[in-house]
Specification:
This protein is α/β, with parallel strands linked by helices. The chain has helices at residues 14-29, 96-113, 181-184, 192-204; strands at residues 3-7, 35-40, 45-48, 64-66, 73-76, 80-88, 119-121, 124-131, 134-146, 149-157, 177-178. The chain has 4 helices and 11 strands.
Length: 206
Amino acid sequence: MKIEIKKSKKPVEYNKAINFLERKLSNMKEKKKPDLIWVLEHPEVYTAGTSFSKNEILDNSINLVKTNRGGKITYHGPGQSIFYFVIDLNKKKKDIRKFINIIENTIIETLKEYKINSFADRNNVGIWVNDKNKVKKIAAIGIRISKWIAFHGFSININNDLDKYKKIIPCGIKDKEVTNLKSIKIQNYKELNNKIINNFIKNLAV
């Protein structure tokens, strides 16, 4: 499986990133391009998936961007790593649940390398940790499938501003909080993005 790896050093505006992904998707449908994994950060933005509800907005002053990904409202901003992808499942088993498991296992395996235990929850999409005796979300997942090509991505909170989540009900989940890696364990996460990419590629090949 040939995969293009793209890394952006400067923050990328959300709409610019999505437009790029959709062009990539169109090219892949025409068999013109390889699969893609793209790592970046966004400037501050709140995005709403196809199943969001207006009552999940707690501060009406936020700038909300509606998207065609699955899921509800989330926040992106500095200190959070975004992993976008465009992966052709026609080349693999056409199994959405298996693909989501690959993403979940990629994050879980990588965090374990930092001695952070995390887990998936079948009732609440994303990756979770036990932090200060509470279950909190550390990573969000949002995907869409078009003609068995999976796109959009997942995000991992590293040292982002957690107060930003107080303006929304993150992912529509009222009874659980959001955290980041620096809050759980202060250490160097400089190589996290590369480890995620390597584990993602490894798991996709299985």
